Amino acid sequence: MPDVVTMDKIVSLARRRGFVFPSSEIYGGLGSSYDYGHYGVLMKENVKARWLEAMVRERDDIVALDSSIILHPSVWRASGHVAGFTDPLVDCRHCKLRFRADQLEEAQCGARPSKHPGETELCDLTEPRQFNLMFQTRIGALEETGLDAYLRPETAQGIFVNFKNVAQIARRKPPFGIAQLGKAFRNEITPGNFIFRTLEFEMMEMEYFVPPESAEHWHRYWIDERLAWYRRFGIRESHLRVRAHESDELSHYSSATSDIEYLFPIGWSELEGIANRGDYDLTAHSEASGTRLEWVDSATGERYVPYVVEPAAGVNRSLLAFLVDSYDEEVVAERPRTVLRLHPEIAPVKAAILPLVPRDAEMSTRARNLYEELRRAMVAEYDDSGQIGRRYRRQDEIGTPFALTVDEQTVEDETVTIRDRDSLAQERIPIAGARSFVLDRLAQEWKTSKAD
Ligand code: GAP
Question: Looking at the whole model, is its pTM more than 0.85?
Answer without folding.
Answer: yes
